[in-house]
Amino acid sequence: MANRKWLDAMNAIKHISNKPLLAGAFVLQRYSMENVREMDAVDTGFMLNSHFSKEESYGASTNVGAEYAHYVHFGTSKMPARRFLTVAGDEHQNEIVQAIEKQAAREIAQAARK
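^ that's the sequence the OP posted. Answer follows.
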C-alpha cells in the first residue's frame, strides 16, 4: 500500500505548475523591496513599487520595472552598487526554498487525491 501512495505521488509531480516557483519569487520580491528601503534607495518610491513577480513558461521571475534599477543595483562610476536583489536571494535562500517546497507539496497532495 505504501508503494502505491509513493507511485501516486510520483505521478502527481507531472502535474505541478509553476506556482511553487512563483511562491519562491514572491519571497524574493518581498526581501528585495525590504532591502531597497534599508539601503536607502528610495527617493520617490517608484523603484520600490515597480517590483513584480510572475509565472513564466520556464518557471517564475522576480523583476524590477524601474528603468534605472540596474544602475542602483550594480552601481556606476559615481555611485556604489546597492545589490538589493542578489542580497535578498543570498540572505533568504532557505526561506525561498521552503516556500517552493511548501507549495509543491500542496500541489502533489492535491494531484494525488484526484
